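ok, trying the design again with the full structure, not the truncated one.
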């Protein structure tokens, strides 16, 4: 889910311990991860976007990761934001 802040620590140590033994992790990425300004105001939160650094947290999990980007926020940053999200995941 999209977060305003705390991108580096949202995968807490207890959560990492639960997820670490799995071979493959499937997750719904409920936010674009596009190279655009990240919203900070309440009225902007209907158009999610997370910084690329959000994805770095997932490197703490050794499993193969499969992210679904097919959801109601997929094009919050437009079609170019969707393409950037796919590229950033690669």
């Amino acid at each position: 889910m999209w977060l305003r802040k705390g991108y580096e620590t949202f995968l807490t140590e207890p959560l990492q311990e639960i997820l670490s033994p799995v071979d493959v992790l499937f997750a719904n990425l409920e936010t674009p991860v596009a190279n655009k300004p990240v919203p900070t105001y309440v009225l902007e939160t209907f158009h999610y976007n997370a910084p690329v650094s959000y994805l770095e947290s997932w490197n703490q999990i050794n499993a193969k990761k499969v992210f679904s980007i097919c959801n109601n926020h997929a094009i919050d940053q437009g079609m170019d934001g969707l393409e950037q999200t796919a590229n950033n995941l690669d």
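Keeping the full-length input from now on. The mean pLDDT is 86.
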